[in-house]
Amino acid sequence: MSLHKDPELKEAVLNLSPREKDKLLIRLISKDKMLMKQLHFQLLEDEDDLSRRIESLREKLNEMSNPNRSDIKNSAVYSNYKGLTSLIRQQSGLINEHEKITKDKFSEVEFRLLILENAFKTYPILFEKSYIAISDKLHRYVIARLKATLTKYDKLHEDLQFDLQESYNYITGFAAENDLY
Predict the structure, then answer these.
(1) Which residue in 71, 144, 68, 60 sits closest to 107, CA to CA?
(2) What is the rounded distance in angstroms from the CA atom of residue 150 to the CA atom of residue 154?
């Protein structure tokens, strides 16, 4: 139930003493891990911390994409399609969490371009036409990620777009060559 739908409860909460409100607030915050992370970032971190977060996530995404680290191979086999779909979803989840915490649109777009670029460069055969049914699932998922990423890219300031231009050009070129639009 929403607090806005129960004005009596809202009024009662607002009339609590500051000490009772503080206790209630702390209890509520502790039940939501994402809210705790967001508050920690907003209240306790600065630009240097954001830079460290960005670098840490970049390293993690690159490590996850390393073909020596995973069992995914660049060959048209069921398990490779399934593994790459899972990997990109996992990486997207990390980026989603980063964006929810930091609200940093530039790094979000940068990382989304990075995971697509890594996938395209490392596993190009998995993006070719295939009769293996699971390949269609990977291609549909990547197309959706691609469209969402390009939309977010278009919303960035042109100076920020310029910084990501090389990656953008590679991804759009690869996508066009492989009919991923």
Answers:
(1) 60
(2) 6
Using alpha carbons, select from 105, 100, 97 the residue that is nearest to residue 61: 97
Q: State both tokens at 75.
A: 């060959």
Residue type for position 23? K
Q: Per-10-residue mean pLDDT for the chain, 181 residues long?
A: 80 91 91 94 94 97 90 93 97 98 97 97 94 93 97 97 97 93 74
**The tokens of 113 are what?**
């371009």
What is the residue-wise DSSP string for 93-109? HHHHHHHHHH--HHHHH
| 61: its two tokens | 């995404």
- pTM of the entire predicted model: 0.90
Per residue, the 3-state secondary structure of 63-101, as one string, reads: HHHCCCCCCCCCCCCHHHHHHHHHHHHHHHHHHHHHHHH
